[in-house]
Amino acid sequence: MKIERAAVVGAGAMGSGIAHVLALKGISVALIEASEAFAKKAVEGISSNLDRQIKKGVIDSSAKDKALSKIQTAADLGAAKNAQIVIEAVPEKIEIKKDVFTRLNSLCSQEAILATNTSSISITRIAAFTRRPKNVIGMHFMNPVPVMKLVEIIRGLETSDETYQIVKDLTLFLGKTPAMSLDFPGFISNRVLMPMINEACFALMEGLSTKEDIDTVMKLGMNHPMGPLELADFIGLDVCLDILNVLFEGFGDSKYRPCPLLKQMVASGRLGRKTKRGFYDYV
Ligand SMILES: NC(=O)c1ccc[n+]([C@@H]2O[C@H](COP(=O)([O-])OP(=O)(O)OC[C@H]3O[C@@H](n4cnc5c(N)ncnc54)[C@H](O)[C@@H]3O)[C@@H](O)[C@H]2O)c1
How many angstroms separate the alpha carbon of residue 30 from the centre of ligand 1? Predict the structure, then answer.
């Protein structure tokens, strides 16, 4: 099945980026937000990100106009009715996702694929909110979506081979590289990344070294573009803590226990770049 009509639910950081890359490839997108005003704001953001790509010579200005003409905004989930694929990017809260998937299940055609961009919630659990678990799949884009090449595709317990193949083909069509994961806590990306960030927090808490030296070792020694503490600030310390809790509870293994220093930072409201203070200051 060639995807020509998509819907994206939630037009925050991720949903806007997903709509951007779909529309650039000529796919019609219904961009659905909590209100028309939020949706309009998201389109303004997409427009300025397209301008940035024009400046960098990645696209020309006619591509921008064509892409914007492919995006229709809406404040009602009903706009997803004719989509062949719906990609959900609402906040990482199970009750919100449950509401969206329950409603999508009754709105969309039986063949429609219902994908989620969740970072850490079980795809199998989300699929159980619908009566079509074989059509439900994880499509985990990375931030910022127009720049990052990876899409982690997560197969829930019931996801069909057909659904997986369509989503893999779509990922390649978007110019991205797919990587398949089964549906276990953290998938591949956070299963491997979060223990490293957590260990860096323990190292700092125990006074093994300074934050700068911990990051320098990983940047210069391991060729990582960012050190783990810098990266944690970039992701958001609250998001890191939430994901570590998902790993800890999901596997019941003490190796995923969140570092007390990380918990303390979150409790104090130091969440990283978004609050201008995390392990580092951003003023
Ligand atoms: N930010 C990241 O780096 C990142 C990376 C990968 C995956 N994710 C995942 O992507 C999802 C979205 O994350 P985000 O960072 O874009 O969040 P965000 O808070 O920036 O955006 C979420 C948007 O959803 C909207 N929304 C809320 N309820 C809605 C509803 N019922 N219908 C339509 N819109 C609704 C909100 O108004 C908001 O604009 C989450 O599941 C998150 O875990 C985030």
Answer: 16
